[in-house]
Amino acid sequence: MLIAVGATSAVQIQGFTLTMLAPVCLLLAPALLLTRPSLGQWLPLALAVIGFAAFCVSAQINHLSLVDQRVQQWAAFALYFVGFLVLAGRDLLRIFSIYCGIAIGAAAYSILPGSASAGFYGSTADVWKYGVGQWVVIILLFCLVLLKVPLPLQALSLLLIAIFSLSADYRSLATNCALASVITLVGWLAANRVPRWAQLAFVAVSATTMYAIVPRLAADGLLSDAIKRKTEAQLAEGVPLILAGRTESPLSISAILDRPWFGWASANNISAEVFDRAKSLAISLGFDPAVPIESGWYFANGDVSLHSVLLGSWAEGGLFAALLPLGLVIAALAMVWNASRYGRWSVLVITVSLQAVWDLFFSPWSYGFLSGFAILAVVFAARHMPSQSHLDVKEVGR
Description:
This protein is mostly helical. The protein has helices at residues 2-7, 21-28, 39-62, 69-88, 92-111, 124-146, 151-167, 171-190, 196-219, 225-237, 249-258, 272-284, 309-317, 323-337, 346-362, 369-383; strands spanning 12-14, 18-19.
């Protein structure tokens, strides 16, 4: 039943913000008044309200319609979040049943003719990269948990997905799946013998080393031709590794520095002077001045691209609009650190947390992201604030 509720997200109402899941959550929302939410459940809701108010102020200052989906995004988050709290509370099985349904709905939407992703499809690899990839991972891990597959085998499945994603030039998903797999295996092998900080420090050092080596292997053609071409193009542009191959970050940073408090409402409002300062910043960071980097700062339809949920929220809505995505990053990292609190769901929690951090920093808004971020906040609240010591022991594995 809950999977079917989540799957209503396959029907789009408004852009990336509202799906048919929204009216379902709207009908359920008043029931929250009959509950006693914890601090961990109130906090995301409060940040969403602050973010929505910030976007409203920015819209008024910059003459943007209040019904624009940029303005509505955190209000939609709050709606999904409250609906999911009413439906699932702190029960992980119920929470992830909804998430599985959302993944099914988002994957179904992405392969339908006329979807925003359909224009990118030229091969099966494109369907995986631009459409169903990260949603299939969620569905697969959910099924593996229900089938009681041991954690090491779940980690192995992530490694296989990482290899396939790398062959399909979906490097971010490959990286996140591989990292989640390693974190799971290190935690399983170390158990209680090695402190958590030492486990994650080992993973971080290994990941940093691989992050420096893999681009060179790709440029040498040891992976796939598609990855080789893309890596060579990024190396030629001089994109720093810390930016994960993205060229839009200097524009986002320059836009934020120019209007840090209330933003531009829409990236399309960013002035020509800010674009010039962004080019200078990019060159100072190591971008090749001979390469027209500004060509990557636009979508195909001519709209300005910031390609980051977090930086885009700050640039468009101002500092207070960025508090929620920043809070989600912190929540995701906390869940990776405290993955053991989630018992049999720990592999899925680690995977979606790492993917969320990547998407918040390096991805533009995409279909299904808002409801997915709302689920992330519900998962966080299920085992944090109050802390694990206040939870019923029976609740930890559910």
